[in-house]
């Protein structure tokens, strides 16, 4: 008989334990004062012992207890809600009002609990840099997610948006098997902290990560830097604003599968720590990179990116004061908008002459207030002018603080004749053509013949040359190889003028030649 009783007790205990593990558990502090911007779009505002719980589901169960005083509890069975439900905790037992907290547990009950949603975006702010949300729950009163439980979430859209006091301490992981939208899940939570269990979240079905952790911007309280480098985001299509404004985030995301991503706009805008390699990212499907690194500290090589489908790079490096990497290998043939592209980018000093601007519509202020020197600006002008695909009627205003070489006056005038507006730049003193063909070369009496050449160029008086590089006048590399004989096959080059760079052990010698 005793054994039967013990077995029954064990059965009941295990059942209660299993139930406890199935619950979605949060901690709330209902005495927190409410500011005007924290008002809830609900039938009425809450009192000091109430919360609006923004749950969605049918016939689910809510139970609660006062933290430290479990005898003060309540249960709400068969709750059905599409927006929010009011929870009234009654009078607290804790004599210290400011210490009163409640543990709220949600289970499927006789139906299913599907979603928590603290905000709903105002439609007219959807395109804003920082969208505005209507509050559906008591955003200032939720403090913690203790446990995710076995809830099968259907969406995490704006799940905890604006919940400024939230921290996630749950050791378990949420069930996202039915989730495709996690946009704005933790948006505008500057002091957000999440336990390391986030590393194990299965996000493989999620397509929309827009603004998931973004909208921050307070370096005094932002320590968010979770280990999410191994996340499987292979279904992701939108990662816009995902880390926007994060002050401490600096995880290595180079292993992420971004092959389906189309939107990377604002992704790292105003991030003040992120500077990890991204050269392994597959960007072949991306169409929007606007504002991606605006006002960030990023300075890694991304010259290998496939940007052939990108149409918008507006302000991509605007005020990105540290970025100074070559982008000469980019296929820019589909880019339509590059307004403010490098505006205020204090360190950027590269040639963009290799870019194909055939689809360009707007380039206003693209090079305004940056550090491109006379040589690289001249290469840029020459490359664009000499490309027959360069479109007409493009404004580059303003071009203050930029200067161009006398060698590219003709090229600049070609652009102006095509309807380009170039104002603010000035004639400089740098040389990019003649200086490459006389004094330096004569020192070693190295020469190229024939010049112009059709298929092969021959080099005279060379010794100890290890390798060579051939670039066009825009600075774009078109050939590179070791040099073990005195000739180079240029048969595959298109007609035009090129620069041959001969790599010696301790110096580089440059020669100009013409391919017929």
From TrEMBL:
Highest taxon above the source species: Bacteria
Domain Secretion system C-terminal sorting: 448-507
The keyword Metal-binding is assigned to this record: no
Keyword line: Signal
InterPro entries for the chain: DUF285, Liste_lipo_26, Secre_tail
Signal peptide residue numbers: 1-20
Coiled-coil intervals, chain numbering: none
Xref: NCBIfam families: Liste_lipo_26, Por_Secre_tail
The protein's name: BspA family leucine-rich repeat surface protein
Lineage of the species this protein comes from: Bacteria, Pseudomonadati, Bacteroidota, Flavobacteriia, Flavobacteriales
């Amino acid at each position: 008989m005793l054994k039967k009783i013990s077995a029954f007790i064990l059965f009941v205990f295990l059942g209660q334990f299993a139930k406890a593990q199935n619950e979605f558990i949060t901690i709330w502090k209902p005495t927190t004062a409410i500011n005007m911007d924290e008002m809830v779009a609900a039938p009425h505002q809450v009192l000091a012992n109430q919360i609006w719980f923004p749950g969605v589901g049918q016939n689910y169960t809510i139970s609660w207890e006062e933290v430290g005083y479990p005898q003060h509890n309540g249960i709400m069975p068969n709750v059905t809600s599409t927006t929010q439900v009011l929870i009234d905790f009654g009078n607290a037992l804790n004599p210290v009002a400011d210490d009163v907290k409640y543990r709220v547990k949600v289970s499927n009950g006789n139906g299913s609990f599907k979603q928590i949603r603290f905000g709903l975006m105002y439609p007219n702010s959807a395109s804003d840099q920082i969208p505005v949300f209507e509050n559906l729950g008591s955003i200032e009163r939720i403090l913690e997610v203790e446990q995710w439980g076995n809830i099968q979430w259907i969406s995490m859209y704006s799940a905890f948006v604006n919940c400024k006091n939230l921290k996630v301490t749950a050791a378990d992981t949420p069930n996202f098997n039915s989730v495709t939208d996690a946009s704005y899940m933790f948006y505008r939570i500057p002091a957000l902290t999440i336990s390391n269990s986030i590393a194990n979240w299965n996000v493989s079905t999620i397509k929309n990560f827009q603004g998931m952790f973004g909208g921050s911007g307070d370096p005094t309280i932002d320590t968010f830097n979770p280990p999410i480098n191994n996340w499987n985001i292979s279904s992701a299509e939108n990662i816009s604003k995902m880390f926007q404004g994060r002050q401490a985030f600096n995880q290595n995301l180079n292993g992420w599968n971004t092959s389906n991503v189309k939107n990377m706009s604002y992704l790292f805008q105003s991030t003040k720590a992120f500077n990890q390699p991204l050269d392994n990212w597959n960007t072949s499907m991306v169409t929007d990179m606007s504002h991606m690194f605006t006002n960030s500290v990023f300075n890694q090589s991304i010259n290998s990116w496939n940007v052939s489908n990108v149409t918008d790079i507006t302000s991509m490096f605007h005020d990105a004061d540290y970025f100074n990497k070559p982008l000469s290998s980019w296929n820019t043939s589909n880019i339509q908008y590059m307004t403010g592209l490098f505006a205020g980018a204090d360190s950027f000093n590269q040639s963009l002459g290799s870019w194909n601007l055939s689809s360009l519509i707007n380039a206003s202020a693209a090079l305004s207030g940056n550090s491109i020197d006379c040589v690289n600006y001249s290469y840029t002008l020459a490359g664009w002018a000499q490309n027959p695909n360069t479109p007409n009627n493009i404004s580059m205003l303003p071009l203050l603080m930029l200067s161009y070489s006398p060698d590219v006056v003709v090229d600049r005038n070609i652009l102006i004749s095509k309807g380009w507006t170039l104002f603010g730049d000035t004639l400089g003193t740098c040389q990019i053509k003649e200086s490459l063909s006389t004094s330096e070369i004569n020192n070693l009496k190295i020469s190229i013949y024939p010049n112009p050449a059709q298929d092969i160029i021959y080099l005279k008086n060379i010794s100890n040359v290890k390798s060579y590089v051939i670039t066009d006048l825009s600075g774009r590399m078109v050939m590179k190889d070791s040099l073990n004989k005195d000739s180079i096959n240029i048969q595959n080059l298109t007609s035009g003028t090129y620069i041959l760079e001969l790599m010696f052990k301790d110096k580089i010698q440059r020669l100009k030649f013409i391919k017929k």
